Design the sequence.
């Protein structure tokens, strides 16, 4: 039996990336995962015979280009589609297209058109500053070592260099809500809503919640990381997982699917191995978990191995989510008034106004399902016909917001909500209902069950400032190492957080190598 | 045309404090007031014979003891009497009493949840740590992080040091606290709805946010950082009503030779060659001074009484974007006798404490949803007190005065102005809420003064009826208040200053903005400082 330097829990994108980087550095690495498909949330599933859908994440927009290059993912089979622009569907059929700096349609006025590139420009200035924090570990502030101090100095210098005006704006903006910022900059309801959607995707917040400018910047950072903009992965998102697995294996890592980790073994005050579902124990120098922090500490390690203060932090880590997903197999291409085939293949969003997003958010605070929802739609089979039988299509949509558990349980609500969602889509795409071959609604507990993310939270824990940066996942366990020697985090629950970004995995690998614990 | 050394616009508590310190330094000061009476939102008036209405601010804790002592306010008639405890009534007929006595509070909490009772000390210690951090900065001018001046750099360094002294984990916890919601904060300690709801109220009072909106944990702190006679976090009544604070400040001002001119409605600040030179009133009167201090909120200061041509574009933009949303209303009710409340002995000290009627944070959050939807809360969060229980001078013998603070009431209804019918509907929702727990309350009402944001704005001049003169969110706190780059009380026009609650450290009857602004003005005039520094906490 091989002695592994590191065992990585979870073959999601971050686990595989971390494993690949460690293996490239010559370490003996085992990546284990209970699922049969690699990639975690980067997954493809057959919805109905011949219809394939990206089961969880549907867009790639902030995957670090450096990782693609370092790991040779293109050679390993990763192909992405054309850059998508956003089409915000309006009820009158005069839709709004947001393509780079260019706004078209929906009666956009010159004032908004002029303000938009300036707004983007400023957001990019801020995002570039954030990137200094994202591409490495988040610095400690008091117990800072020279690496941390250097990061802080770079950050301070970056702040000064962006100019007094930008710095004053950032100080004001960073903790406020996207709702106010949109109203300060733009007039058009649909434009404000389409942009605000980026700030709330994957969070449990509405556009009026303070801190949503931070989440907007988190997403805006995508432009800095992934030059292509929003794209779909050819063959479905699972192809990204497959390519990462191949790359990790090519680097020398062993990837074992279909074998979940049951327990993290701690002896004395050190973590020294994992117990697998088949009962075997794998000894190792380091356990690197890409599972979410709650699963890692509460389920796999166990509260009995944590001191009280840390146990409390684990229990208090917030994993609420309001994101659900609608999957449809369609007998033909849906007709949306005013959109041609090319426009249909773009990212389509239904968010009439910021108020409508806020109203869609209110019900989940009380565990209610609400009647109006916000859609972020992809019809990937237009660009990638392999996803559906000839002439037929699949449609996937992110739905905001649905609660984790409505009163009475999901069994009592699922069908009603699904019907209601289809009804809402039908208003924009007449005839859609008649085209449906198969349909399903995935709600937060489904994601929790299928992908192990607590609360069904896509970011492995809410991404709000108090759970971000050096506070992610919680004080005392930042910088990828934890309060338990030998145990590391490399998933979205670690800095810089969720989305298909790859930075937690790579940053963790670098940090672990630098610490020399695998030597 | 009369000439003064300094003119202060607005005789609210901050204007009076500012004027008092300038006069104390020997300046010839006039404080101008639009209304025929002084006090602004720190006011008590005998609207009905024998009943004194503190119809805006209603309790005192934040008023800085440094100022109380330095200006000898007790000698000028100010006496603050603490009141103990509070009650939240529950829909199931039970209630939660927030006793001032620690052991009684423990037993009361344990009656609801043993776990919560045991968590309370941890909660109190963590919260008082935050209080201790912020208190030393109340009587100071915030440093400007965008400035390279030695004074700012030194202050920033000191600010950073005091935070670094916390150690890594406590520092991060502090950042979490400052950026988090009161709901999430309380969820970390307590499991019982009514206990959380009782405390959470302090996180939303005067705030256009819900209990689960990030940023509201700080608002909780804002209500905890004051003290009565050194008891941090305690609240009290000014004997004779909140107007007693303004009255004592005005006497202090006059004792230093300062002047108050009522019925003086300022139309515009006179600026010549980029320098403030005085003010012109709406009736055409002009007063001249080289120092003009505005105690109006930042929106009124820069968008109403300053000529836009005298201001740089960035300040106009910042003033337009300043967040000053109205979210509160007030009912002042004269009662024929003492109402009874379900489950409370009329002789209990709790009758003199605050009373609330929202027993879950979810109800408070729904109350906020109504505000977002452009209407008043149908199930409002109330902070209700009967000040005459503690201070009998507020009402005739045997009668009582009731003060009801209401969260939430929007500045506009569905985007249009309030109508009298709206006001009646708002009033009814509040009276219904109280009647649910007090069967004889409605029959005792002699007169009820209902104030929506519309009335508060019209009478007191608080834009949108925002009681803090600008929201207390991080984008508008410390070096960001009122705007980044303008947090040191100086307006962009030479000789013009700001001293309102729209400046650091913000709203509440604190008087610190007025005092801090005076210190900056005296420093610019190269006069000896008359403003005390902050007291150290024990």
Sequence:
């Amino acid at each position: 039996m091989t002695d592994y330097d590191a065992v990585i829990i979870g073959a999601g994108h971050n686990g595989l990336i971390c494993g690949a980087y460690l293996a490239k550095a010559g370490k003996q690495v085992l990546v284990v995962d209970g699922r049969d498909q690699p990639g975690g949330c980067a997954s493809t599933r057959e919805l109905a015979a011949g219809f394939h859908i990206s089961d969880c994440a549907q867009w790639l927009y902030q995957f670090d280009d450096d990782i693609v290059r370092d790991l040779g993912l293109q050679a390993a089979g990763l192909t992405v589609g054309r850059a998508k622009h956003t089409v915000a569907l309006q009820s009158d059929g005069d839709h709004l297209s947001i393509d780079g700096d260019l706004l078209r349609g929906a009666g956009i006025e010159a004032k908004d058109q002029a303000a938009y590139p300036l707004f983007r420009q400023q957001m990019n200035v801020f995002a570039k500053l954030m990137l200094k924090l994202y591409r490495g570990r988040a610095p400690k502030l008091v117990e800072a070592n020279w690496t941390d101090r250097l990061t802080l100095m770079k950050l301070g210098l970056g702040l000064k260099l962006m100019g007094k005006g930008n710095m004053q704006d950032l100080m004001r903006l960073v903790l406020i809500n996207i709702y106010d910022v949109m109203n300060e900059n733009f007039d058009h309801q649909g434009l404000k809503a389409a942009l605000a959607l980026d700030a709330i995707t994957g969070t449990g917040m509405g556009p009026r919640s303070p801190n949503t400018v931070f989440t907007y910047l988190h997403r805006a950072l995508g432009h800095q990381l992934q030059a292509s903009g929003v794209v779909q992965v050819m063959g479905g998102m699972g192809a990204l997982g497959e390519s990462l697995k191949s790359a990790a294996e090519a680097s020398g890592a062993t990837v074992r699917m279909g074998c979940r980790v049951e327990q993290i073994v701690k002896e004395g005050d050190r973590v020294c191995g994992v117990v697998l579902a088949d009962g075997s124990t794998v000894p190792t120098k380091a356990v690197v978990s890409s599972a979410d922090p709650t699963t890692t500490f509460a389920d796999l390690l166990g509260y009995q191995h944590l001191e009280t203060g840390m146990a409390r932090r684990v229990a208090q880590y917030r994993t609420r989510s309001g994101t659900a997903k609608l999957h449809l197999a369609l007998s033909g291409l849906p007709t949306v008034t005013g959109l041609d085939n090319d426009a249909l293949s773009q990212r389509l969003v239904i968010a009439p106004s910021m108020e409508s997003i806020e109203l869609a958010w209110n019900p989940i605070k009380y565990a209610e399902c609400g009647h109006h929802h916000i859609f972020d739609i992809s019809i990937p089979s237009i660009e990638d016909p392999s996803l559906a039988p000839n002439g037929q299509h699949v449609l996937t949509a992110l739905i905001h917001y649905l609660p984790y558990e409505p009163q009475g349980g999901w069994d009592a609500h699922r069908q009603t909500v699904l019907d209601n969602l289809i009804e809402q889509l039908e208003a924009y795409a007449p005839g859609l209902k008649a085209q449906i071959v198969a349909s399903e609604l995935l709600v937060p507990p489904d994601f929790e069950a299928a992908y192990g993310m607590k609360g069904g939270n896509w970011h492995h824990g809410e991404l709000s400032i108090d759970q971000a940066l050096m506070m992610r996942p919680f004080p005392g366990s930042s910088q990828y190492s934890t309060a338990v020697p030998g145990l590391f985090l490399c998933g979205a629950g670690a800095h810089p957080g969720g989305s298909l970004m790859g930075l937690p995995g790579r940053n963790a690998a670098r940090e672990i190598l630098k610490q020399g614990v695998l030597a | 045309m009369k000439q003064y050394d300094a003119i202060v616009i607005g005789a609210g508590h901050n204007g009076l404090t500012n004027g008092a310190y300038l006069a104390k330094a020997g300046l010839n000061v006039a404080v101008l007031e639009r209304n025929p009476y002084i006090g602004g939102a720190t006011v008590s008036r005998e609207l009905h014979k024998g009943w004194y209405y503190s119809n805006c601010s209603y309790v005192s804790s934040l008023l800085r003891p440094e100022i109380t002592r330095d200006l000898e306010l007790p000698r000028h008639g100010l006496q603050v009497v603490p009141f103990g405890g509070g009650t939240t009534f529950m829909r199931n007929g039970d209630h939660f009493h927030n006793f001032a006595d620690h052991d009684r509070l423990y037993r009361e909490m344990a009656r609801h949840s043993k776990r919560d009772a045991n968590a309370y000390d941890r909660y109190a210690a963590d919260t008082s740590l935050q209080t201790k951090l912020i208190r030393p900065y109340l009587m100071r001018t915030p440093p400007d992080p965008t400035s390279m001046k030695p004074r700012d750099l030194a202050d920033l360094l000191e600010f950073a040091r005091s935070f670094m002294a916390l150690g890594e984990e406590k520092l991060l916890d502090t950042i979490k606290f400052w950026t988090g919601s009161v709901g999430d904060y309380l969820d970390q300690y307590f499991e019982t709805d009514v206990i959380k709801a009782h405390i959470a109220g302090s996180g939303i009072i005067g705030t256009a946010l819900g209990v689960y909106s990030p940023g509201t944990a700080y608002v909780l702190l804002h209500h905890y950082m004051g003290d009565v006679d050194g008891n941090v976090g305690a609240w009290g009544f000014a004997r004779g009503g909140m107007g007693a604070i303004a009255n004592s400040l005005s006497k202090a001002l006059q004792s230093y030779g300062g002047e108050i001119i009522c019925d003086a409605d300022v139309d515009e600040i006179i600026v010549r060659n980029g320098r403030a030179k005085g003010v012109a009133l709406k009736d055409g009167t002009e007063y001249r001074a080289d120092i003009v201090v505005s105690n109006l909120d930042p929106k009124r200061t820069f968008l109403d009484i300053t000529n836009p041509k005298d201001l740089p574009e960035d300040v106009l933009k910042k003033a337009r974007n300043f967040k000053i949303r109205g979210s509160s209303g007030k009912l002042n009710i004269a009662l024929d006798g003492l109402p009874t409340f379900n489950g409370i002995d009329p002789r209990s000290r709790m009758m003199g404490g605050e009373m609330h009627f929202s027993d879950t944070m979810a109800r408070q959050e729904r109350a906020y949803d109504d505000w977002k939807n452009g209407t008043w809360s149908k199930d409002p969060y109330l902070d209700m007190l009967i000040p005459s229980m503690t201070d009998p001078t507020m009402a005739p013998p045997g009668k009582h005065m009731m003060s009801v603070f209401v969260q939430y009431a929007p500045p506009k209804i569905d985007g249009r102005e309030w109508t009298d019918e709206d006001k009646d509907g708002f009033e009814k929702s509040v009276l219904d809420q109280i009647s649910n727990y007090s069967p004889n309350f409605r029959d005792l009402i002699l007169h009820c003064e209902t104030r929506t944001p519309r009335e508060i704005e019209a009478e007191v001049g608080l834009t949108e009826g925002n009681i803090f003169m600008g929201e207390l969110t991080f984008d508008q706190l410390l070096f960001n208040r009122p705007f980044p780059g303008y947090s040191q009380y100086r307006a962009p026009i030479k000789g013009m200053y700001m001293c309102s609650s729209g400046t650091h450290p913000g709203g509440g009857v604190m008087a610190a903005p007025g005092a801090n602004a005076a210190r900056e003005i005296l420093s610019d005039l190269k006069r000896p400082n008359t403003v005390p520094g902050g007291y150290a906490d024990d």
Remarks:
- Residues 4-42+64-74+232-318+454-515 of chain A form a domain with the FAD/NAD(P)-binding domain fold (CATH 3.50.50.60).
- The longest strand of chain A covers residues 281-289.
- The mean pLDDT of chain A is 96.
